[in-house]
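Work Package 4 report. The design task specified in the project plan requires that, given a folded chain encoded as structure tokens, an amino acid be chosen for each position. We show below one input record used in the internal validation round.
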């Protein structure tokens, strides 16, 4: 993350809108004649990012507004545009715009054109490594002048120790950050695999539900046939029973000689009736056996369909349980990913503080060594 562009209007010596760009992601040097606005330019950046302009009195506000010939300036703003391609500022966009507008009766902040509170801005900057309690991201000229005048040998020893300590801490933070990035990469891969598994289980769930509906529909179409054949069997059994009853009655009539003129006539009649009843009984018995066979087949098919439905239902429940487990795993991985992301943000902030402290310590060390050489030269 770095500053891409600064836009100033109505602020101190900047009357008209002034756009300063482009900036390097590494080092930048502002040069110009005396009175050209170099100090006010850095003052403008400080005005937006630091905590030094929190409680402004009317006189303080007036001093921040441009004073010159022409119409009176009643409002001023400073806008800083950040390159956020590394997403240190926890916003999805690649570019973040932060503007502060000040007047005699107003002091507003805008983030990407939307009004926000100062506390929101400070919290967002802290998340990106701009610490209010340790504001080393802005170092003013002459700030460490008094410290540079202390005892040189003692200061050099202290600074060397601090430099080594900060260097070790910085290396540790870099290693920790790399470890977290590897962990985050692994979690993202696991989350992708879990999502693929979840999609697979969802498809399997849909297929099983479709199979169950199909089996239930097939079973519903078989049941009427089963009931029909079973009814036929019951009716044929009743008719067979009636035929046997009728045959018994014929045998009972065999002794009634008086109803026939001769014994031969009686025997012919009885034999004819018996033959007819036996043929009818044989036919009925055949039909009954066929129907029983059909009923048995339908019963077997119904039982098979019932078992299939039970198996599909059991498989469906197992798939639902697997899907629930995958969903729980996905939720847990999301929480872990958020935790690692937050840890990485915190490490960025700490690394920024340590790097800035290390840089300042090195600068102070160079100054003290230079000053010591000057003193030794005298």
């Amino acid at each position: 993350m770095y500053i891409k562009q600064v836009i100033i209007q109505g602020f101190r010596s900047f009357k008209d809108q002034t756009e300063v760009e482009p900036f390097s992601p590494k080092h930048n040097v502002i040069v110009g004649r005396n009175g050209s606005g170099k100090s006010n330019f850095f003052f403008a950046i400080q005005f937006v990012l630091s905590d030094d302009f929190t409680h402004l009195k009317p006189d303080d506000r007036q001093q921040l507004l441009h004073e010159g010939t022409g119409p009176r300036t009643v409002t001023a703003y400073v806008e800083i545009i950040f390159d956020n391609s590394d997403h240190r500022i926890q916003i999805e966009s690649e570019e973040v715009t932060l503007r502060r507008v000040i007047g005699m009766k107003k002091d507003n902040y805008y983030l990407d054109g939307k009004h926000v509170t100062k506390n929101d801005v400070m919290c967002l900057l802290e998340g990106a490594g701009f610490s209010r309690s340790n504001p080393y991201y802005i170092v003013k000229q002459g700030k460490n002048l008094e410290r540079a005048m202390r005892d040189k040998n003692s200061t050099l020893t202290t600074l060397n120790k601090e430099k080594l300590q900060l260097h070790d801490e910085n290396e540790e933070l870099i290693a920790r950050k790399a470890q977290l990035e590897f962990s985050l990469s692994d979690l993202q891969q696991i989350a992708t695999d879990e999502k693929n598994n979840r999609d697979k289980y969802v498809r399997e769930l849909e297929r099983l539900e479709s199979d169950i509906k199909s089996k239930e529909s097939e079973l519903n179409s078989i049941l009427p046939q089963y009931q029909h054949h079973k009814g036929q069997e019951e009716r044929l059994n009743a008719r067979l029973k009636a035929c046997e009853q009728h045959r018994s009655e014929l045998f009972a009539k065999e002794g009634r000689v008086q109803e026939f003129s001769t014994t031969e006539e009686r025997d012919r009649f009885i034999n004819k009736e018996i033959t007819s009843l036996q043929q009818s009984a044989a036919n009925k018995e055949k039909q009954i056996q066929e129907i029983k066979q059909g009923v048995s087949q339908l019963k077997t098919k119904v039982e098979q369909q019932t078992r299939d439905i039970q198996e599909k239902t059991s498989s469906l429940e197992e798939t639902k349980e697997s899907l629930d487990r995958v969903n729980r795993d996905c939720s847990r991985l999301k929480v872990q990913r958020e935790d690692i992301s937050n840890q990485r943000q915190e490490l960025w902030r700490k690394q920024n503080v340590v790097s800035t402290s290390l840089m300042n310590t090195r600068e102070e060390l160079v100054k003290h060594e230079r000053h010591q050489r000057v003193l030794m030269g005298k």
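The domain at 2-138 is CATH 3.40.50.300 (Rossmann fold). Validation will be extended to a larger panel in the next phase.
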